[in-house]
Amino acid sequence: MDRIEELMRDAKPRVGVPGVVPGRESARSIATSTDPNVVQLAGRTPARRNTIRAAAATLVAAAAVVAAVVVGGNLTSQPAPGPAQTGVPTAPTSVSPSPSPSASASNTPAPAATPTPTRTTAATLTTGGVPCTMAYVDQQWSDQVRAIIPVPPNERQYYTVLGCADGWLAYSTSDEGAKAMKLDGGNAWFNIGKLQNGRFLVDYQQAWSSVFDWEFQATNNQGLTAQQAMDKEFAEKGIPVALRPKLVGEGPASK
Question: Full-prediction pTM beyond 0.90?
Fold first, then answer.
C-alpha cells in the first residue's frame, strides 16, 4: 500500500508550483508505467531522459570536436595548389645553361688578319712634264685637211705605249685595232710622237712618225740584226738612236 499511496500522492496537482493552474490539463499527472524511473509527472522531466539527452549532447559535442580536428588537419596538411599549367614548360631559374661551342668561340679573340699585300703600280712615265699616255697623243693625218685630232677615247684601247724619253713617245697598235680602224698595212709599224705644245704629235707626213716593228726588223735583207736594223732606221728618220732602248725596247735576242 505504501507504493500505491506514493503514486497517488504524486498524482495530485501541486498548487505551489509556479505556472500551474488547477483544473487544466497541464496540472494533471500522467502515469504510463509503474517504474518510478519512467513515470512522467507534470512539470518534471525524468532523470533518465535527462541522462540520455546529456549523453547525446556529449556525443554531438565530441563528434563536432572530431570533425573540427579532421577538417583542421586536412586544412593544415593539404599542400597549396600549384600554379595552373599553361602548356609551356618554364625553364628552371636555378640552373645556369652551359655555354654553347659557338658562344665560347665568340669569346676567343680571332687571330689578327694578315694584311693583303697591295700591288704597286709603276709610276707613269713622263717627259718634259707630260705623262706618256695616249690621252696626250694627237694625230695629224696626211690628207688635205691636215686636222690635228686627239686619239678618240674609244680607240685608246687599241694602242700600247712602249716608252718615252726626251720629248719622244712610241706606241704600238694591236691586231684588233688594225682591223677595227682598217689601217693600210695593218700594224707593221711602231708610231712615234714628238712633244709639241704639251702634247705628243704624230704627224703622218713626217718620216719620223713611224718605224717598222721588231718582227720586220728581224727579217731585213741586209744581214743585220734586228737591233742594227732598228738603229739604222732611227738614224735615217732623224730619231735619236741613243733613245731607241727607251722608246721601243731592246728587241728580240740575236740568233
Answer: no
